[in-house]
Write a structure and sequence with these properties.
Layout: H1 3-33, H2 50-84, H3 89-100, H4 105-112, H5 116-131
Helix pairs in contact: 1-2, 2-3, 3-5, 4-5
Length: about 130
């Protein structure tokens, strides 16, 4: 696995986490529209109410969000250690912003007062420096 492939895992994990969080938030919003069973209604069968089903799904998503967070934190820590092996501060900053902070190339270029093209050149040089590490 190359350094770029490893660092891109962090970005993909961040996107996955955000998607799971959105799903969890949607379930929460859906729960506000559900109604619980009325106490004066006759209950037949063993089917749970929609509200309890939604609550179980919400708990499942909460656990998944926590698992995805744990995975992301672990990947970020490994990524930070890898990035710290690069000697050039500008290269470190670009790698950190791109892969740990998940910033776009445009955001990085503006923040560093570089052109978009120069940002990509420095990024390429940083990845070349990481080839020796991995």
């Amino acid at each position: 696995m190359t350094a770029k492939e490893f660092l891109n895992q962090i970005r993909r994990q961040e996107k996955l986490l955000r998607a799971v969080e959105r799903e969890r938030d949607q379930i929460r919003a859906d729960m506000l529209n559900l109604k619980g069973a009325k106490l004066n209604e006759r209950v037949t069968g063993t089917k749970q109410s929609d509200l309890s089903d939604a609550y179980i799904r919400l708990e499942t998503y909460e656990e998944r969000v926590n698992d995805e967070w744990d995975r992301l934190i672990g990947l970020r820590e490994q990524g930070k250690k890898l990035i710290a092996t690069v000697e050039d501060a500008d290269q470190q900053t670009i790698l950190y912003d791109r892969y740990i902070n998940c910033m776009s190339w445009e955001e990085i270029a503006v923040g560093m007062h570089y052109s978009w093209r120069h940002t990509l050149r420095v990024h390429g040089a940083a990845l070349q420096n990481l080839k020796d590490v991995i």
